[in-house]
Amino acid sequence: MRDVARLAGVSNQTVSRVLNAHPHVRDDTRRRVLAAVQALGYRRNQAARTLVTRRSGTLGIIAYESALYGPTSMLYAIEGAARSAGYFVTVAGLRDLDRRSVLDAVDRLRQQSVEGIITIAPKPVVAGTLAQVSDDLPVVGVGGGQDEALPSVQIDNAAGAGLATRHLLNLGHATVHHVAGPADWPEANERADGWRAALHATGRPSPYATPGMWTARTGYAQGRRLARDPSVTAIFCANDQIALGVLRALHEAGRRVPDEVSVVGFDDTPDAGYFLPPLTTVRQDFAELGRRSLDLLLAQLDAAGHQSAPERVLLLPHLVVRASSAAPPQSS
User: Fold this and answer.
1) What number is the average pLDDT over the span 150-176?
2) Strand, helix or coil at 95?
3) C-alpha–C-alpha distance, residues 132 and 148, integer Å
4) For the CA atoms of the chain, what is the radius of gyration?
5) DSSP assignment, residue 323?
């Protein structure tokens, strides 16, 4: 910093003000300092800055190691929001979703002097464990199954499932079948609850839904079973991968989509519009989820020990209608 000050002909304090975007610096002075910074290739010493300010500028993310579209999109959205706000991000991945693994992840992040943690993990044990360490380290939960003691941001999965189910009912289908996700994932249960509630609200029969995995294989297996039942005209799938397997099973069984059976997914993955036929699905706004979760964490950092009731933010998804849903076939 002294070298930058000498080259720019200013004081060390002026250099510090420019680097910290202080508003009370003349434009020509700011330009000289930034030119000196570029000419010298100056980079601030993050470790030294942490010692002086007691702020590391680093946030931690605890995330389940998964290739699933939802958790991965959440991770990228949070990282992007943090980067835009001027923070570095360090990620601690979880292979096992248990208390010991969560505490180990917290310890790893503490060693990197993170200022706070955002967690993306699909099991209640993760949020429950983090709620116990949040007294001295701000924590925000993202996704379903969050502990009420933690501030959290979630997609309203039940509302999204209701959108999908009502869309199919409004097209004229007598009822809607559901191919569910894993029974131990809160998101899957919330989507099943939303589907069931929409049927009950309209007095429609509620078929049994068999829990499975978030995979096309689950969709294919359940799709083969449903394809054998001629009364099945509408299927809501817990995610787009499941819907892909259902579409394959219906095609092999000679059940045309959407002429004979309508299919709706959840997530709106980048490939959903290229399924055959293009998939009607529920879209989640992951960018907004990233921004809101970061806002909650930064609000905790700014509060600096002032306790308040944990804020819970529910983001509403919306339906994207494509060619996989239509009115049911007319009885002859």
Assistant:
1) 96
2) coil
3) 12
4) 25
5) T
